[in-house]
Amino acid sequence: MTAPTFEPRLSVVIPVKDEAGNIEPLLAEIETACAELAPFEVVYVDDGSTDATFSELQAARARRPWLRVIQHDRCAGKAAGMRTGVRYARAPIIAVLDGDCQNDPAFIPAMYAAVFEGGETTGLCAGQRIGRKDGRFKSWQSRIANGVRGRILKDATRDTGCGFKVFRRDLYLALPHFDGLHRFLPALVSREGYRVTHRDVVDRPRLAGVSKYGLFNRLWVGLMDLAGVWWLIRRAKTIPASREIPAGGTSEVR
Protein backbone atom coordinates (compact mmCIF):
# COMPACT_ATOMS: atom_id res chain seq x y z
CA MET A 1 0.00 0.00 0.00
CA THR A 2 1.32 3.43 -0.97
CA ALA A 3 0.51 6.41 1.24
CA PRO A 4 -1.11 9.43 -0.47
CA THR A 5 1.26 12.21 -1.52
CA PHE A 6 -0.57 15.12 0.17
CA GLU A 7 0.10 16.22 3.76
CA PRO A 8 -3.18 15.89 5.71
CA ARG A 9 -4.36 18.27 8.43
CA LEU A 10 -6.32 15.49 10.09
CA SER A 11 -6.09 11.69 10.17
CA VAL A 12 -9.25 9.76 11.02
CA VAL A 13 -8.29 6.38 12.49
CA ILE A 14 -10.84 3.55 12.59
CA PRO A 15 -9.90 0.13 14.00
CA VAL A 16 -12.40 -2.55 12.92
CA LYS A 17 -13.08 -6.23 13.24
CA ASP A 18 -15.94 -7.84 11.31
CA GLU A 19 -17.71 -4.61 10.39
CA ALA A 20 -18.93 -5.57 6.90
CA GLY A 21 -21.94 -3.46 6.02
CA ASN A 22 -20.69 -0.44 7.98
CA ILE A 23 -17.70 0.54 5.80
CA GLU A 24 -19.33 2.40 2.93
CA PRO A 25 -21.97 4.31 4.96
CA LEU A 26 -19.39 5.54 7.48
CA LEU A 27 -16.92 6.61 4.78
CA ALA A 28 -19.64 8.59 3.00
CA GLU A 29 -20.44 10.44 6.23
CA ILE A 30 -16.78 11.13 6.97
CA GLU A 31 -16.23 12.52 3.46
CA THR A 32 -19.09 14.99 3.96
CA ALA A 33 -18.18 15.94 7.54
CA CYS A 34 -14.46 16.47 6.86
CA ALA A 35 -14.77 18.41 3.60
CA GLU A 36 -14.03 21.66 5.47
CA LEU A 37 -10.89 20.10 6.98
CA ALA A 38 -9.35 19.01 3.68
CA PRO A 39 -6.80 17.71 3.07
CA PHE A 40 -7.55 14.80 5.41
CA GLU A 41 -6.95 11.06 5.38
CA VAL A 42 -8.81 8.07 6.77
CA VAL A 43 -6.78 5.15 8.11
CA TYR A 44 -8.73 1.92 8.59
CA VAL A 45 -7.06 -0.88 10.54
CA ASP A 46 -8.58 -4.30 9.84
CA ASP A 47 -7.89 -6.22 13.04
CA GLY A 48 -8.14 -9.80 11.77
CA SER A 49 -11.66 -9.68 10.32
CA THR A 50 -13.15 -12.95 9.11
CA ASP A 51 -16.10 -11.47 7.20
CA ALA A 52 -16.16 -9.22 4.11
CA THR A 53 -14.66 -6.20 5.89
CA PHE A 54 -11.33 -6.28 4.04
CA SER A 55 -12.89 -6.74 0.59
CA GLU A 56 -15.25 -3.82 1.27
CA LEU A 57 -12.29 -1.67 2.29
CA GLN A 58 -10.40 -2.60 -0.87
CA ALA A 59 -13.38 -1.64 -3.01
CA ALA A 60 -13.81 1.65 -1.17
CA ARG A 61 -10.12 2.52 -1.47
CA ALA A 62 -10.27 2.30 -5.27
CA ARG A 63 -12.59 5.33 -5.28
CA ARG A 64 -11.01 7.40 -2.51
CA PRO A 65 -7.36 8.55 -2.70
CA TRP A 66 -7.51 9.73 0.92
CA LEU A 67 -8.38 6.25 2.25
CA ARG A 68 -5.61 4.00 3.56
CA VAL A 69 -6.07 0.38 4.65
CA ILE A 70 -3.82 -1.39 7.15
CA GLN A 71 -4.30 -5.07 7.97
CA HIS A 72 -3.23 -7.00 11.08
CA ASP A 73 -2.29 -10.62 10.44
CA ARG A 74 -4.28 -11.60 13.54
CA CYS A 75 -6.79 -10.07 15.94
CA ALA A 76 -5.00 -7.96 18.58
CA GLY A 77 -7.82 -5.85 20.02
CA LYS A 78 -9.03 -2.27 19.78
CA ALA A 79 -6.12 -0.64 21.61
CA ALA A 80 -3.61 -2.34 19.30
CA GLY A 81 -5.66 -1.32 16.27
CA MET A 82 -5.70 2.29 17.44
CA ARG A 83 -1.96 2.35 17.99
CA THR A 84 -1.26 0.83 14.59
CA GLY A 85 -3.52 3.38 12.92
CA VAL A 86 -1.96 6.32 14.75
CA ARG A 87 1.54 5.11 13.89
CA TYR A 88 0.65 4.97 10.18
CA ALA A 89 -1.23 8.28 10.30
CA ARG A 90 0.60 11.37 9.04
CA ALA A 91 -1.41 14.29 10.40
CA PRO A 92 -0.51 16.01 13.69
CA ILE A 93 -4.10 15.67 14.95
CA ILE A 94 -5.96 12.36 15.08
CA ALA A 95 -9.68 11.61 15.28
CA VAL A 96 -10.62 8.09 16.39
CA LEU A 97 -14.06 6.64 15.67
CA ASP A 98 -15.67 3.27 16.22
CA GLY A 99 -16.37 1.41 12.99
CA ASP A 100 -19.97 0.44 13.78
CA CYS A 101 -21.54 3.78 12.71
CA GLN A 102 -22.62 4.60 16.27
CA ASN A 103 -20.30 7.65 16.30
CA ASP A 104 -21.59 10.45 14.06
CA PRO A 105 -18.72 11.99 12.03
CA ALA A 106 -20.62 15.30 11.91
CA PHE A 107 -18.99 16.10 15.28
CA ILE A 108 -15.43 15.79 13.93
CA PRO A 109 -14.93 19.47 12.88
CA ALA A 110 -15.95 20.86 16.29
CA MET A 111 -13.79 18.35 18.15
CA TYR A 112 -10.86 19.06 15.84
CA ALA A 113 -11.27 22.79 16.49
CA ALA A 114 -11.29 22.20 20.26
CA VAL A 115 -7.81 20.63 20.03
CA PHE A 116 -6.31 22.74 17.23
CA GLU A 117 -7.54 26.11 18.48
CA GLY A 118 -6.85 25.17 22.09
CA GLY A 119 -3.15 25.47 21.40
CA GLU A 120 -0.33 23.15 22.35
CA THR A 121 -1.56 22.83 25.94
CA THR A 122 -4.80 21.11 24.82
CA GLY A 123 -4.13 17.42 24.23
CA LEU A 124 -7.53 15.75 23.91
CA CYS A 125 -11.18 16.35 23.10
CA ALA A 126 -13.19 13.39 24.41
CA GLY A 127 -16.66 12.58 23.15
CA GLN A 128 -19.34 11.81 25.74
CA ARG A 129 -22.41 9.97 24.48
CA ILE A 130 -25.94 11.21 24.95
CA GLY A 131 -29.03 9.24 23.99
CA ARG A 132 -27.29 5.88 24.46
CA LYS A 133 -28.49 3.11 22.11
CA ASP A 134 -26.63 0.20 23.72
CA GLY A 135 -29.49 -1.30 25.70
CA ARG A 136 -30.08 -1.45 29.45
CA PHE A 137 -27.54 -4.13 30.35
CA LYS A 138 -24.67 -2.53 28.45
CA SER A 139 -25.54 0.91 29.77
CA TRP A 140 -25.57 -0.49 33.31
CA GLN A 141 -22.06 -1.89 32.81
CA SER A 142 -20.85 1.47 31.51
CA ARG A 143 -22.38 3.41 34.40
CA ILE A 144 -20.65 1.17 36.95
CA ALA A 145 -17.27 1.28 35.16
CA ASN A 146 -17.42 5.05 34.61
CA GLY A 147 -18.53 5.69 38.19
CA VAL A 148 -15.73 3.63 39.75
CA ARG A 149 -13.12 5.04 37.37
CA GLY A 150 -14.20 8.63 37.95
CA ARG A 151 -14.02 8.33 41.73
CA ILE A 152 -10.57 6.77 41.66
CA LEU A 153 -8.88 8.69 38.84
CA LYS A 154 -10.83 11.96 39.19
CA ASP A 155 -10.53 12.53 35.44
CA ALA A 156 -13.69 14.70 35.20
CA THR A 157 -14.96 12.57 32.31
CA ARG A 158 -18.49 11.18 32.34
CA ASP A 159 -18.04 8.57 29.60
CA THR A 160 -14.56 7.32 28.79
CA GLY A 161 -16.07 4.29 27.03
CA CYS A 162 -17.04 6.52 24.11
CA GLY A 163 -14.78 5.62 21.19
CA PHE A 164 -14.99 9.13 19.68
CA LYS A 165 -11.85 11.10 20.55
CA VAL A 166 -9.59 13.72 18.94
CA PHE A 167 -6.02 14.15 20.18
CA ARG A 168 -2.46 15.13 19.27
CA ARG A 169 -0.55 12.34 17.57
CA ASP A 170 2.79 12.94 19.27
CA LEU A 171 1.17 13.03 22.70
CA TYR A 172 -0.69 9.74 22.15
CA LEU A 173 2.44 7.93 20.97
CA ALA A 174 4.31 9.13 24.08
CA LEU A 175 1.77 7.49 26.42
CA PRO A 176 2.46 4.03 27.88
CA HIS A 177 0.75 1.48 25.65
CA PHE A 178 -1.39 -1.32 27.06
CA ASP A 179 -4.55 -3.20 26.14
CA GLY A 180 -7.46 -0.97 27.18
CA LEU A 181 -5.53 2.31 26.91
CA HIS A 182 -8.38 3.97 24.98
CA ARG A 183 -10.63 3.85 28.08
CA PHE A 184 -8.15 5.86 30.16
CA LEU A 185 -7.00 8.55 27.73
CA PRO A 186 -8.41 11.54 29.70
CA ALA A 187 -6.59 10.53 32.88
CA LEU A 188 -3.32 9.76 31.10
CA VAL A 189 -3.40 12.93 29.00
CA SER A 190 -4.00 14.98 32.17
CA ARG A 191 -1.10 13.12 33.80
CA GLU A 192 1.17 14.50 31.07
CA GLY A 193 0.10 18.06 31.92
CA TYR A 194 -2.25 18.64 28.96
CA ARG A 195 -5.79 20.03 29.08
CA VAL A 196 -8.72 17.72 28.30
CA THR A 197 -11.94 19.10 26.83
CA HIS A 198 -15.26 17.31 26.32
CA ARG A 199 -17.98 17.31 23.70
CA ASP A 200 -21.41 15.72 23.92
CA VAL A 201 -21.96 13.47 20.89
CA VAL A 202 -25.17 11.78 19.82
CA ASP A 203 -25.08 8.00 20.07
CA ARG A 204 -26.69 6.03 17.24
CA PRO A 205 -27.80 2.42 16.81
CA ARG A 206 -25.28 0.03 15.30
CA LEU A 207 -25.96 -0.16 11.57
CA ALA A 208 -24.79 -3.74 10.90
CA GLY A 209 -23.03 -6.59 12.70
CA VAL A 210 -22.83 -7.29 16.43
CA SER A 211 -20.94 -5.81 19.38
CA LYS A 212 -17.56 -7.33 20.24
CA TYR A 213 -17.81 -6.59 23.97
CA GLY A 214 -19.49 -8.42 26.83
CA LEU A 215 -19.43 -8.38 30.61
CA PHE A 216 -15.99 -9.93 31.13
CA ASN A 217 -14.07 -8.05 28.44
CA ARG A 218 -15.58 -4.67 29.37
CA LEU A 219 -16.21 -4.49 33.07
CA TRP A 220 -13.86 -6.79 34.99
CA VAL A 221 -10.84 -6.38 32.70
CA GLY A 222 -11.37 -2.61 32.81
CA LEU A 223 -11.35 -2.64 36.59
CA MET A 224 -8.02 -4.48 36.58
CA ASP A 225 -6.57 -1.91 34.16
CA LEU A 226 -7.85 0.81 36.48
CA ALA A 227 -5.49 -0.33 39.23
CA GLY A 228 -2.51 0.00 36.88
CA VAL A 229 -3.51 3.47 35.67
CA TRP A 230 -4.09 4.62 39.26
CA TRP A 231 -0.53 3.51 40.06
CA LEU A 232 0.87 5.37 37.05
CA ILE A 233 -0.85 8.58 38.06
CA ARG A 234 0.34 8.33 41.67
CA ARG A 235 3.93 7.82 40.47
CA ALA A 236 3.87 10.81 38.10
CA LYS A 237 6.32 13.61 38.84
CA THR A 238 6.60 17.02 37.24
CA ILE A 239 9.91 17.33 35.42
CA PRO A 240 11.49 20.71 36.23
CA ALA A 241 12.49 23.17 33.54
CA SER A 242 16.05 22.59 32.38
CA ARG A 243 18.75 24.36 30.46
CA GLU A 244 21.99 23.33 28.85
CA ILE A 245 25.01 25.27 30.07
CA PRO A 246 27.17 26.05 27.03
CA ALA A 247 30.87 26.78 27.08
CA GLY A 248 30.77 30.56 27.20
CA GLY A 249 27.34 31.23 25.61
CA THR A 250 23.73 31.84 26.55
CA SER A 251 21.78 28.91 27.92
CA GLU A 252 18.55 27.66 26.39
CA VAL A 253 15.63 26.97 28.74
CA ARG A 254 13.49 23.89 27.90
Automatic annotation (TrEMBL):
InterPro entries: Glyco_trans_2-like, Glycosyltransferase_2, Nucleotide-diphossugar_trans. The keyword Glycosyltransferase applies. Residues 11-172 form the Glycosyltransferase 2-like domain. This is Dolichol-phosphate mannosyltransferase. It holds the Pfam family Glycos_transf_2. GO terms for molecular function: undecaprenyl-phosphate 4-deoxy-4-formamido-L-arabinose transferase activity. One of its GO terms (biological process) is lipopolysaccharide biosynthetic process. The keyword Glycosyltransferase applies. GO terms for cellular component: plasma membrane. Keywords: Cell membrane, Glycosyltransferase, Lipopolysaccharide biosynthesis, Membrane, Transferase, Transmembrane, Transmembrane helix.
